[in-house]
Amino acid sequence: MYYDQQDMGGYIFGAYTACAFAADHTYVYMMSENGTRFVRVHQENKTVELIGQTLPTGVYSHMVYNKYDGMIYMSLEAAGTIYRFDPYHTPPGRTTPWITMDDMELIVGTGVVSSISKEGHGREAQLGTLCGLGADHEGNVYICDQKFHCVWKIDRLLNCTIFAGPPAGPAVAGYRDGKPEEALFNRPYDITATYDGLIYVADTYNYVVRCISIQ
Questions:
Q1: Is the pTM of this model over 0.90?
Q2: Which of 99, 124, 97 is nearest to 111 (CA)?
Q3: Domain total for the chain?
């Protein structure tokens, strides 16, 4: 469920399909497929504001708010890349935030389709089909990779490593519990990190929710 409002005779978000959500202490952020609409909704008064549109994100994108640095991290499924941006960025000449791709920093991923994954720093890392993201209280970001059946971790220095699932290389799917480096997944899709040191992963084709302790 989400709120929408009319502006100049039409609804702000309208009939677009929402695919990416994030929330900070004040707003809920929502982006449509293909980045056509990007809005924020005030959590108390429910005011809806358009803060971006026609963003070339590809069909599906995913977002998480990182409380540690106040940035939103966004994954692009098709490109295998991670961007981050300040959701409060207000350019000269405007009185409210307005986000374009020029305001987003590409921080992780080569953007090149490959049959193998590769750990590395920032843009040197080779990732696959990136879906949901989660952020812990220390500012680490975790991302589900459906193509390589793993969970990636980006630390505050932008080092990108496989946190759970098979090691970097060809894709390996399966189901196995154990230590993060021993576990196997099958197309994990979404993830969240809690402030008590737990990560929950929606392991799609194993039809289960997995729990990982990061304490």
A1: yes
A2: 124
A3: 1
74 or 1, higher pLDDT? 74
For residue 1, is it within any domain? no
CATH of the domain at 192: 2.120.10.30
Domain membership of residue 189 (yes or no) is yes
Interacting residues of 131 by C-beta distance below 8 A, sequence separation 6+:
60, 62, 75, 77, 143, 144, 145, 146, 188, 189, 190
- What residues does 184 pair with on adjacent strands? 176
Contact (CB, 8 A) for 21 and 39: no
pLDDT tens figures, 49-80: 999 999 999 999 999 999 999 999 999 999 99
CB 82 within 8 A of CB 71: no
Distance separating alpha carbons of residues 67 and 131, to the nearest angstrom: 20
DSSP-derived pairing of the beta strands 27-32 and 141-145: unpaired
CB 82 within 8 A of CB 108: yes
Q: Are 179 and 167 spatial neighbours (Cβ–Cβ below 8 Å)?
A: no
Report if residue 163 sits inside a domain.
yes
Domain that holds residue 124: 6-213
* Residue in the block written with tokens 């980045």: 35
